[in-house]
TrEMBL record:
CDD domains: ICL_PEPM
Alphabetized UniProt keyword annotations: Lyase
Keyword Lyase carried by entry: yes
PANTHER family linked to this entry: CARBOXYPHOSPHONOENOLPYRUVATE PHOSPHONOMUTASE-LIKE PROTEIN (AFU_ORTHOLOGUE AFUA_5G07230) (PTHR42905:SF16), PHOSPHOENOLPYRUVATE CARBOXYLASE (PTHR42905)
One GO molecular-function entry: lyase activity
InterPro entries linked: ICL/PEPM (IPR039556), Pyrv/PenolPyrv_kinase-like_dom (IPR015813), Pyrv_kinase-like_dom_sf (IPR040442)
Name of the protein: Isocitrate lyase/phosphoenolpyruvate mutase family protein
Keyword Isomerase among UniProt keywords: no
Species annotation: Streptomyces thermolineatus
Superkingdom field: Bacteria
Amino acid sequence: MTDHLARQQVKARTFHSLHRRGEPLVLVNAWDAVSARIVEEAGAAAVATTSAAVAWSLGTPDGDALDRDSALARTARVVAAVDLPVTADIESGFAADAAGVAETVRGVLAAGAVGINLEDALYGVPAPLRPVEEQAERIAAARGAADAGQVPLFVNARTDVFLRAVGDPRDRLKEALARAEAFLEAGADGIFVPGVTDPGTVSELAAALGAPLNVLAGPGAPTVYELAACGAARVSLGSGVARAAYTLVGRSVREVLTGGTYKELDGALGHEEVNALLEARKP
């Protein structure tokens, strides 16, 4: 076994251990080396990428439009920028079939990440979600590729039943749990249900799942502490921080073009501060 593989295995086991019901892992999602370093310097326990912001920063819309190589290259840069465990958002796997998902996971491992998000959403077709059996096959392929690579990759299986408002609202909890059960049987380690933050539903999901529940949070959602009390084991911000950064760009442009002033830039990190974040990572 190589030293690199041994270190990656330790990071993977550490990442698994951070998922504790009622004491959630908080992930502020990064999209490049600097944002990842900021997350690390702030004291986070791990770094997650956001597929949306990675795609946007590379000039591609979110939703299975980014190519695999570009996504993996960005994952490798994030991993290289920090000492923390990194989990990569790989959308639906950057592949048309299960074998392709396995190939993507091999690339994720080569990049040095120790976790993935794998979603069941479909884009550009009438059906909003991939059939559960097909998605389970893709999760099993991811699990198999990770096991073959000797890394206990944390497979966070995402279902967009609530996010995409699938079917009758009265049936969504049941559908999400049915999908979660199938995904866990296929080899997932955790379940991610974006679009749900109300305490009652979060509590029901957490109580019914035999695995860590990931909740997507943001303005208007309960606090991390309230979500913890509901049983969440992981709370992530998704593309929220990136969208806030892009909002600042828009505000700054409008201010200087219309008023000639620069108040929106007050409090910005200094040039040397940002440089120092990356200088610390030089070999």
